Amino acid sequence: MNSEKLSIIKIGGNVIDDSKILSSFLQDFSNLEGYKILVHGGGKVATRLANKLGIETIMMDGRRVTDKDMLDVTVMTYAGLCNKNIVAKLQSLGTLSMGLTGADGNSILSKKRENSNIDYGFVGDVISINSSWIKSLLEIGTTPVFCAITHDKKGQLLNTNADTIAQSLATGLAHLFNVSLTYCFEKRGVLLNIDDENSVIESLNFNYFQELKTKNIIHSGMLPKLENCFQALQLGVKEIRIANPEIIKNPNLPHTYISI
Ligand SMILES: Nc1ncnc2c1ncn2[C@@H]1O[C@H](COP(=O)(O)OP(=O)(O)O)[C@@H](O)[C@H]1O
Ligand SMILES: CC(=O)N[C@@H](CCC(=O)OP(=O)(O)O)C(=O)O
């Protein structure tokens, strides 16, 4: 194992949607030393665009049901609008970055979801990542910026939850780097009371997660996020945090540390 540190940071739709928060985050991300990868969602932006086009949004357990029309919306939004805006801003900050879908460099291979009670449509579950290619990008000084689109290597693009993309990259690179994974969103961390920013759960393990899920204290988009965290820990990722984007600049701010 290479002891070199790799920081994988994921930002969600609410961060991307607020230009002030996004700019401030990208400045901090640019200042971050060492190997790094940015993963972004953009669910909120896709929902808004779909709405403008008269396409209904259906979310099940925090995941988007993606028919052909919705797939087009998500590809345009995530791989186009969001990804290219972020990459352009990073270039302006002096970070040599490259925007990628999973099809680019065959970097993230996935499989259309089957065997689910719900027909999610064109939603992909990650099978593998092209870790050696991603490593070489990092080694030539490039910062990859991944969006939430993958492919099946048969010519089909698939919509994949951005939290899962971050987790798959983290686990797929854990044999090559000392990986830390940070999920940034609009709140300070996982909260005991969603309306109280001061109720951050500082440490969350799997049993406590199950308890809070049963009590509906953790729900919606937080469910796939945490499921991804526990999977990543089992597969060798060393450090996982859920936090506000401010954590990048100030690691001592309250946040949620995930453990098995
Ligand atoms: N206990 C909780 N603490 C914090 N957020 C929670 C909790 N339970 C549910 N959530 C919801 O999860 C959302 C984060 O998930 P999601 O929207 O998928 O994140 P992202 O912005 O990273 O895409 C929060 O905006 C919040 O509405
Ligand atoms: C299958 C699935 O749910 N894909 C997500 C991908 C984007 C995403 O994850 O965006 P956030 O991080 O902003 O939520 C979606 O289309 O909403």
TrEMBL record:
GO terms for cellular component: cytoplasm. SUPFAM superfamilies: Carbamate kinase-like. Keywords: Amino-acid biosynthesis, Arginine biosynthesis, ATP-binding, Cytoplasm, Kinase, Nucleotide-binding, Transferase. It comes from the Bacteria. Residues 6-244 form the Aspartate/glutamate/uridylate kinase domain. It is an enzyme of class 2 (transferase). Pathway: Amino-acid biosynthesis; L-arginine biosynthesis; N(2)-acetyl-L-ornithine from L-glutamate: step 2/4. InterPro entries: AceGlu_kinase-like_sf (IPR036393), AcgluKinase_fam (IPR004662), ArgB (IPR037528), Asp/Glu/Uridylate_kinase (IPR001048). Substrate binds at G42, G43, R64, N159. The keyword Phosphoprotein does not apply. Its EC number is 2.7.2.8. Pfam families: AA_kinase. The keyword Aminoacyl-tRNA synthetase does not apply. Belongs to the acetylglutamate kinase family. ArgB subfamily. This is Acetylglutamate kinase. It comes from Apibacter muscae. The gene is argB.
